[in-house]
Amino acid sequence: xxxxxxxxxxxxKSIGKLTFAGRNLVGANADVAVAILNVNNTLNTENVxxxxxxxxxxxxxxxxxxxxxxIIAGTARxxxxxxxRVATKAGTLxxxxxxxxxxxxxxxxxxxFVSGKDKTPHGRVRSxxxxxxxxxVLFRVTPNYKTDNRGEVARDDYDEPIISNxxxxxxxxxxxVDVGNDDNIVRILVDPAExxxxxxxxxxxxxxxxxxxxxAFAGNDATDWTVYADTLVSxxxxxxxxxxxxxxxxxxxxxxxxxx
Length: 260
What we know:
The chain is mostly beta strands and 260 residues long.
């Protein structure tokens, strides 16, 4: 399976201000208790599987903070037969007065978790849980074509197929001896204009570092995660800042916009 990453660490405070709204039961057997949380004093909610012993009897509207959270692949009652998975969040929910904070440092959360075709940001995540961004070796680039409402390839006024983005397919160098395992393939999507600029000088075996990473959960039989990048730079390029630092700034800006 392409982009099979397991779980990603999620920075709880980047989701926004969380208040307790109630309890729900989820999972294939409706046996997993989750806390329903309102986000930023809106009607938008997040379901979070809390730590053992969490007090579900607390008052509605109680402010809470989420630490040491993860996004993982879960099973919902509505999709268990098809084998599709959904993104579920788990972590430790604490009163705002509690002094505990994330085990990971701020800089570790260097990417964005997004949803929908418009890539709406929903918080910062740790890309290192998915792959080492300095370990990627390029072996193929292919276009993804836009489709119409009948599932056919959409075409422009000149009857040319419309490209929605390009797939940059990588082998993880540290796992390259296991070439028959699709789980080791990382596929990153880049917008057409940037992709076409990049491809001019690329060849198989190039080592590239993604910048401005975004992760979306797909959860189908081909891939668990969709990964987007603003651009890719050569591993040999000397940049003034470390890639993780650049990505952290991109993530912070987008998450701040989402909360405002």
